[in-house]
UniProtKB/TrEMBL annotation:
Protein name as catalogued: DUF1272 domain-containing protein
Pfam name, any one: DUF1272
InterPro entries associated with the record: DUF1272 (IPR010696)
Taxonomy, superkingdom: Bacteria
Amino acid sequence: MLELRPNCECCDKDLPPDSTEARICTYECTFCADCVDGVLKGVCPNCGGNLVARPIRPAAMLVKNPASTKRVLKAEGCAPKAA
């Protein structure tokens, strides 16, 4: 089950569970659409994989399976990995 992390790892923007702006990679690294489209150019800076829209968990399901509250922020900045 996805953690539904609460923020963009790049700019720390809040990304609540119902956000249509959240993007994730296969490892669930989480970024906002602005950072993905701008600085990251669609590539995860952690693993080099692509970033896609994060699914939205229905509100009724959040009661039983709440979103994560642990914030992750890249201390070294947010530039994509060199190929």
